[in-house]
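Entry for the shared binder. Reason: the reviewer on the internal report wants the predicted structure included alongside the sequence.
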Amino acid sequence: MPSELLDLARTIALEAGELAAKRRREGVEVAATKSTIVDVVTEADREVERLIRSRILDARPDDAILGEEGGSSSGTSGLTWVVDPIDGTVNYLYGIPHYAVSIAVVEGDPDPLTWTGLHGCVLNPAIGELFTGSRGEGAFLNCDAIRVADPVPLELALINTGFAYAAATRAEQGEVVTRMLPMVRDIRRFGTASLDLCMVANGRTNAYFERTLSPWDHAAGAIVAREAGAVVTGFGDAAPSRDLILAAEPQLAARLEPLLIELGSRFEI
């Protein structure tokens, strides 16, 4: 059954990715805004999620689904599919080839504080990279096993992060990054949380942190990163949530969390 679930997630992600890429080639426009005027959704987001939901329900009618565009639907199996049809919508809108279809299967209610991540699948359709991870089974890029980068001192760490849509929150996050920048090798901001986590998993960056994420933003990528050897956590012993997600090689994670607190990352959100 575990392999069947991952195989299904992979199959659905590849089909959804083909649709997303096709719509991108045809041209994309904003369909609506959500939390702020810069928090956009395209008709492709909605269409791709409808496809994903349809394929899941056809194969697994008793499972629950939590999706960015379609909300939650209940199930009776104890499993929930957590779906971001196009993570990195702004990149997608602008034609930047760094966006993802993100699908996770978790055990439990659709709450990252309590669920157990089982399988994660993150596809970048623009370049054909498919990241997968299953609990206790490791992480992969396409068919190749991946691992986090070796430990590095903080001053040699390449760190990626992201910012909220609310202008006031972004300003506070920017202040944290400004204070951190002289302490590390450099900071990157790519705009797609699921792929940020997979970049840590594949050793392309040393760490990733962000606040204000929704469950579908990090569900699949967190599984991939954890299976690749990263610590994936919130503040203290908390699970990743809107308050914080931090993913890094374990030694670096132990240095970064207190630094983030010191730099002011506990501001209200």
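Summary line for the report: The helical segments are 2-26, 43-59, 89-94, 167-180, 193-201, 215-227, 250-263.
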